[in-house]
Design goal:
The chain has two domains: 306 residues, Aminopeptidase (3-Layer(aba) Sandwich); 136 residues, Aminopeptidase i, Domain 2, CATH 2.30.250.10. Helix content is 27%, strand content 24%. The chain is built from eleven helices and 23 strands. The strands form five sheets. Strands 1-2-3-14-4-15-21-17-19 form a nine-stranded mixed beta sheet. A seven-stranded antiparallel beta sheet has the order 8-7-11-5-6-10-9, covered by helices on one side. The longest helix is centred in the first third of the chain and has 20 residues. Bound molecules: manganese (II) ion (MN) (2 copies).
Length: 464
């Protein structure tokens, strides 16, 4: 190596492909981890399903339901389900809880199409559902793909019915139709944003009439009759339901080299899964470690299952008081990884990124010091001290990482739960997986990035 090369090596910041930073054995482990992740993607798609999935996993791993009246000690493992849409996994540490907790928080809601309160109608002998989209979507992407329906219906008598239809191979699916190109000339003059309008996101749910008589709306009647038989519900029960239409296709390997995973809702299951598995496998940590999987991030974290609500603060208060500590002191000493995705650089659309400061697939877990829009507005800008501390531990533990902004300045922007965590005076920074086609029905991530994110959470929880 020449003197110049040596100096370059010492002074320049250069990032290699993640595969060059990993051993063959580690890559094999990563691929295996991602096989389980794909199974999870296919098994649990909505906030409610993911909450019950991990509640079950937690019980199997010896976690006990948190009981505020019980006294806990180091090594105890508890879980707490919040209104069926969020779950805490907590392992109490050896250190005094006043030294703070280590938190990893990911969200388990993803962009989707919610049914309107009064969704079912018949038009020209076709039965359809009206929808209201949830989170940021490009509406045209949601037409002509198979959809499944997940959620709950609370009946007039208070009974709750669970709906999960469209994912099984033999189950019927649903679809939003689009115009054929032959007749799409006028539609094609619309802007991309208006290509499919919100009120055109109507889901096709049936087309055969109930019986051969002269009544109108017989197709709708037939659908309601099927729903009555299958779920015991009547039309009015839709008024108190949460039914979510999500893509019905399965997650799978992408590429000849199988290096990537395509699937619905990587944002933010791709962080939630590693965060939960890291908590479930944790033994005797120094600090009290908490994974929280939360709801409502995609619509601003409002609502009492979102992080803008007091429920995180309440749980931290409960566990602090369990050890006789002042919750405020525990929170001020706590540290949090806000586990969320970032937009990966896409060579097809380079203009929205600033290449020196964006994230890339296959460069490891991405730290986002800040998010926001229009001059970092609405962002929790992590301090140099905290980013420095996180950086040091990532390097020490040989975790491949990068730093990334969400797009070029003023190209757009976004937010995460980091600001809600920061409100509690907890040190927090965003850390997660770079994603291609983010918020589309079929997002793409790199397997090695996913595994590196898992490793980051495991090591964060093991901090001394
Ligand atoms: Mn997210
Ligand atoms: Mn998102």
């Amino acid at each position: 190596m020449s003197k110049v090369e040596k100096l370059k090596e010492e002074l320049f910041y250069n990032q290699k492909h993640i595969a060059k930073e990993m051993t063959a054995a580690e890559i094999k482990k990563a691929d295996e981890f991602c096989d389980s992740y794909i199974d999870f993607l296919n098994a649990a798609k909505t906030e409610r399903e993911i909450t019950s999935f991990f509640e079950e996993e937690a019980r199997a791993k010896g976690f006990k339901k948190f009981d505020v009246s019980k006294k806990y000690k180091a090594g105890d493992k508890v879980y707490h389900v919040h209104k069926e849409k969020a779950i805490f996994l907590c392992v109490f540490g050896k250190k005094d809880i006043r030294k703070g907790t280590k938190l990893v928080i990911a969200h388990i809601d993803s962009p989707r199409l919610d049914l309107k309160p009064n969704p079912l109608y018949e038009a020209d002998e076709i039965a359809l559902f009206k929808t209201h989209y949830y989170g940021g979507i490009k509406k045209y992407q949601w037409t002509t793909i198979p959809l499944a329906l997940h959620g709950v219906v609370v009946k007039g008598n208070g009974e709750k019915v669970i709906v999960n239809i469209g994912d099984g191979d033999t189950e019927p699916k649903f679809v939003i139709t689009d115009l054929l190109p032959h007749l799409g000339k006028e539609q094609e003059k619309r802007t991309l944003d208006q290509g499919i309008k919100g009120e055109e996101l109507n889901i096709l749910v049936g087309s055969r009439p109930f019986a051969d008589d002269k009544e109108s709306e017989l197709v709708k009647l037939n659908i309601l009759n099927i729903l009555k038989e299958k779920y015991g519900i009547v039309e009015k029960d839709f008024l108190s339901a949460e039914l979510e239409a999500v893509p019905a296709f399965k997650a799978c390997d992408i590429g000849f080299d199988r290096s990537l995973i395509g699937g619905y809702g990587h944002d933010d299951r791709v962080c939630a899964y590693p965060a939960a598995i890291a908590a479930l496998n944790l033994k005797d940590p120094e600090y009290t470690c908490i994974t929280l999987l939360t709801d409502k991030e995609e619509i601003g974290s409002y609502g009492n299952t979102g992080l803008y609500s007091a429920y995180l603060e309440n749980f931290l208060s409960d566990i602090s008081e369990n050890f006789g500590a002042n919750p405020r002191h525990v929170m001020s000493a706590s540290e949090c990884l806000s586990a969320d995705v970032n937009a990966a650089f896409d060579p097809t659309f380079p203009e929205v990124m600033e290449k020196r400061n964006c994230s890339y697939i296959n460069k490891g877990v991405v730290i986002s010091k800040y998010t926001g829009a229009r001059g970092k507005s609405g962002s929790s800008d992590a301090s140099a001290e905290f980013v420095g501390k996180i950086r040091q531990f990532l390097d020490e533990k040989k975790i491949v990482w990068q730093i990334g902004e969400l797009g070029a300045v003023d190209a757009g922007g976004g937010g995460t739960v980091a600001l809600d965590v920061a409100r509690l005076d907890i040190d927090v920074v965003d850390l997660g997986v770079p994603v291609l086609s983010m918020h589309s029905p079929f997002e793409v991530v790199s397997k090695l990035d996913v595994y590196m994110t898992y490793k980051a959470f495991c090591e964060f929880f093991k901090l001394k």
